[in-house]
Specification:
By secondary structure, the protein is of the alpha/beta class. It has 11 helices and 12 strands. It is about 40% helix and about 15% strand. α1 packs across α6 and α5 crosses α11. The termini are far apart.
């Protein structure tokens, strides 16, 4: 069976391609003409050049495909111009789903994000039913993913067989850019993290996320969403695991929220003028007030989602960053 994967050169996309090939699928990948395809080297994949913002190239790439995995997204908390994140994440999703409707694919798996879900004030893990207050969404990235998920739900209501997956914070191989989550690990490895914020996240092996996409195509219910998550960890616990894995010291200083938020606003203003990319934005600092814990139970029960321990997922990420040359060798003796 031939399938299309958008965002095939990205972190999750490159791993989804591998999961599909392991299951015997014939994979066609959609990649922008300027994309770096090194993450796909050695794989038996048909590459189609195009852009999710170009509906014609998407429709052409979907010809002859039975399933579409729409993984492509712009995952960044600092995008200039700001409209770009909506063009890619919202309108790009609309283009892919409309093309899927017109070409008659049997199923679409749409890669949303836990960013599209609500948060609990009491700190309990979020599930797929946690309500979202759109007025409380401050980040362009989070707002774009929320709006894109609404587009997917609209198409599902119209009869398009769409299954939604919401990855939490994946870690592992082929995080080449890296993602914001991968940057945390890389900063630790390169000794660029002197302190941390009191927050938490749900760490999941990217291999589990990739296989979760395949399972969603095979077992998921149309119109339903599934959190592809793993283990809930505080930032302090995550850094402790990294310290144990590497022998590097974990930062012991926990930064106070309000002064850091003020500095983040000043830094963002400076970067807006200078064209630089801030290490920390007001949105990411604001998000740190919440422990972003998630409950993947539905995906485990209905799809059979694997639950690799966070320690093992982090070990794989560390090994890949080192082998790929992203870590300063002097730090490892």
């Amino acid at each position: 069976m031939r399938v299309l994967v958008t965002g095939t050169t990205g972190f999750i996309g490159a791993n989804v391609v591998r999961a599909l090939l392991d299951k015997g699928y014939v994979v066609r990948g959609l990649a922008r003409p300027e994309s770096d395809c090194r993450s796909l080297e050695g794989l038996e994949i048909e590459l189609a050049r195009g852009d999710v913002r170009d509906s014609g190239s998407v429709k052409k790439a979907l010809q002859g495909c039975s399933i579409a995995f729409h993984v492509a997204a712009l995952y960044s908390f600092w995008v200039r111009p700001r409209s770009l994140v909506y063009e890619v994440n919202v309108e790009g999703t609309r283009n892919v789903l409309q093309a899927a409707l017109e070409t008659g694919v049997e199923r679409v798996v749409y890669t949303s994000s836990v960013a599209a879900l609500g948060l609990r004030e009491d700190g309990r893990p979020v599930d797929e039913t946690t309500p979202v207050d759109p007025r409380g969404i401050k980040s362009d990235y989070k707002r774009s993913k929320y709006l894109a998920q609404q587009v997917a739900l609209e198409y599902a209501a119209e009869g398009l067989p769409v299954v939604i997956v919401n990855p939490s914070f994946p870690v592992g191989p082929y995080d080449a850019k890296p993602t914001p989550t991968g940057q945390v690990i890389l900063d630790f490895l390169n000794r660029k993290m002197p302190a941390y914020l009191d927050t938490g996240m749900n760490v999941v092996a990217v291999e589990d996320v990739a296989l979760g996409h395949v399972l969603a195509a095979e077992k998921g219910r149309d119109g339903e969403g599934y959190i592809l998550g793993g283990e809930n960890l505080t930032m302090q616990a995550l850094l402790g695991i990294l310290a144990e894995l590497t022998g590097l010291p974990a930062p012991s200083l926990c930064l106070p929220y309000h002064p850091i938020l003020g500095l983040a606003y000043l830094n963002a203003a400076f970067c807006a003028l200078s064209g630089r990319v801030p290490r920390m934005t007001p949105e990411t600092v604001s998000m740190s007030r919440h422990r972003m814990f998630y409950d993947p139970g539905k995906a485990v029960r209905e799809l059979g989602l694997s639950q690799t321990p966070a320690r093992e997922a982090l070990r794989r990420a560390v090994d890949w960053f080192r082998e790929a040359g992203h870590v300063k060798s002097a730090l490892w003796g």
